[in-house]
Write a structure and sequence with these properties.
Blueprint: H1 2-7, H2 14-26, H3 31-40, H4 43-70
């Protein structure tokens, strides 16, 4: 239980979390960058940024498909 509390008090900003999640969506991460992010990022921020990223990705796909089908 103490590990979870300690993990949620990490000091990386939400913007840094979004950047890490976006790089992860692309799938191009250096191992050293991944290890640094794993030590600094707040897990709650990672989950929120991942959900936001997935929602934006799905919305973009829907808009592209609607634009192509409409023509």
């Amino acid at each position: 239980m103490g590990d979870l509390k300690q993990a949620t008090q990490r000091k990386a900003s939400f913007l840094a979390t979004i950047k890490a999640v976006l790089w992860s969506f692309l799938g191009i991460r250096k191992k050293s960058s991944y290890e640094q992010d794993a030590a600094q990022l707040n897990p709650v921020h990672v989950i929120i940024a991942g959900i936001l990223g997935a929602a934006i990705f799905i919305a973009t796909l829907i808009l592209v498909v609607k634009a192509v089908v409409a023509k």
